[in-house]
Amino acid sequence: MRAWIIWATGLLAYIVAVLDRTTLGVSGLNAADRFAATPSVLSTFVVLQVVVYAAAQVPAGVLLDRFGSRTLIVAGALLMATGQFALALTTSLPLAIGARAVVGLGDAVTFISVLRLVPHWFAPRRVPLLTQLTGICGQLGQVLSAIPFLALLTGTGWARAYLSVAALGALGAVLALIVVKDTPSGRVVAAETMSIRATLASVKTVWLRPGTRLGFFTHMGTQFSVTVFALMWGVPYLTVAQGLSTAVTGGLLTASVVAAISSGILIGLVTGRYPHRRSWIVLGIIVSNALAWSVVLALPDRAPLWLLLVLILVISVGGPGSMVGFDFARTFNPSATLGTAQGMVNMGGFIASLLVMQAMGLILDAAGGFSFESFRVAWTVQYVIWVFAIVGIVITRRKALKSMRAAPQTDEERSLLEFFENR
């Protein structure tokens, strides 16, 4: 029971982090009015947050290996609460952009810190499923932004809505400080303090492991489409380009979370039982995302509601699909550098997301703003990322298998190697 309580407390911090991450996505039109921002400026507003998030992943992983989950979860929650508090009160665009950067920094350390708790507190056979549950249950933060936060924003205004989110973040920090423990012994076993050169050498070693890069490309190809949709362009696309009401849009975003939770449980069970099939599952998710978007974008006019629902359900599977990347990191990296490896994996989807968000903002600006045709063109930039990720997965999984056969380093690698040799 103690393990579940600690995990649930960390999960709460991650739910709040996802809420913080997605608040601007549902308040994008309000932000445009409040800060007099054009679509490209508005996309930069969010892209900076994602840039900070992605750039901080490797340092966050190194700090996680050194100081443990509890310290980083508390620090991340306080940073996000501070950023949201500043955003609630300012009407200055530069200050607001800076506040979102602070939110991105706090967000950067939270997820991998919560994920690191799982192998310390649960049996190995439960780790794949708990990893999935961490990711998909965290997406309840998107529900909080799509329904209660949006209702607060509409009913009470910008300041009160963002102050409420800041208060929730502060509560998460207090609970994590009181409840969370790094390991059953109550502390993380820190590695020896290393020089900057030694730290960089360790980071390079982790990246050069093909399994780490396999996780990176897995995360990149599966996660970015639903992230761009939820974080930035989904609400304007559905309301302006597709002509849906705010209520229907909120319902579709909620359906996205339900789909992520349902598919995540299934993916966790299947990948835990058939780890040798993980890369094929990932490739199937990427192809299904591309096909669903192709059908919608091929239409000359607005899509029917049922087709938009199908699109959102399909791309939502990409969220839990990206969690398989962390399974690859755990399989092919020793525990001493797992935080660094997980940080590298987590960079993949967010680098892709920020590139797509910024490119879409530029295209929308060039096309004259929010319209059906401008969004139709803008969404096509996704195909570049899908092709790049698929090529990366195919190449690195071959190298990972070769490396595993040459010198397995973890128990999971040895188990997989035994399976392949007995086929």
From TrEMBL:
Domain Major facilitator superfamily (MFS) profile: 6-404
Alphabetized UniProt keyword annotations: Cell membrane, Membrane, Transmembrane, Transmembrane helix
Membrane topology: Multi-pass membrane protein
Transmembrane region(s): 41-64, 71-91, 97-118, 130-153, 159-180, 214-235, 247-268, 280-299, 305-329, 350-371, 377-395
Key word Membrane present: yes
Superkingdom: Bacteria
Protein name as catalogued: MFS transporter
